[in-house]
Write a structure and sequence with these properties.
With 312 residues, this protein is of the alpha/beta class. The chain has ten helices and twelve strands. The strands form two sheets. Strands 1-4-3-2-5-6 form a six-stranded parallel sheet, with helices on both faces.
Amino acid sequence: MRIIRGVEATLPEDRGATAALGNFDGVHLGHRHVIDVARAAQPEAPLAVVTFDPHPRRFFNPDAPPFQLTDAETKARRLEKMGVERLFLLGFDAALAALTPAAFCEDVLARGFGLAHVAVGADFCFGKGRAGTAETLREQGARLGFGVSVVDLLAGETEPMSSSAIRAALADGRPEDAARMLGHWHRIEGPVLHGDKRGRTLGYPTANMALAGLMPPRFGVYAVRVDVLDGPHAGVYDGVASLGVRPMFGVNEPNLETCLFDFAGDLYGARLSVALVSFIRPELAFETVEALVGRMAQDSAEARRRLAALPA
């Protein structure tokens, strides 16, 4: 997949693509539906996604708590797996925010990226003051010469499928519900960092990862499935992970500590993708180290049991 960072980086061979347009945080089933519609509209054209970095919500409210489900690198990797050939990445800044809907369609979509067709969800809004709607896009496409598909929202069991609904499920400790909307387990990805190495002294060595501005799911212990994405230990492993602030040790910065079952090796610097499969219990503060170690043994056994019950 080729990543095009802004209209100035667009090459002649990038033009003429059919593109899904949106934020695509989490790349859930609703997003995939929009991408599939874009693909079907012009199957012979390169398949593209147009998205924003940073997320517009982060630009307009930089002091808001972390809310994103995926970082830019994770999002790009998931889109590539779906067959997306071009990722048009727009830096969201004051100049972009000030564009009227008509100017965005003309300067960015038509003349900038040279798109042949655009697909959006029915609730898509764009342009200065979010004044543009899907119908605005359809009108501008007719004026500027690109096709437009407006895609009805997919519905979950009780509500429309959305990144907000997925965030709510994760905040409640319901990763199974989030997975049904995502079409895959929610994953936290990043490099393994050096920590205080306390886990190895307790008999449970862990790979430590920062949340790096991502929305933190409910703090607690999870059964996890881990992809080691690079390095000599690349592969898939089962494990148990603690997500939180480690209250027993006075740590306040949220992180993810993952213990891989039946693993021996050095993972420092490797990039991990940790899938939250099942929530086991909330984060607790123990009175003694012995009580903590005893509960870690119970958590590990329970994680093994839940992971073994997964469909093959």
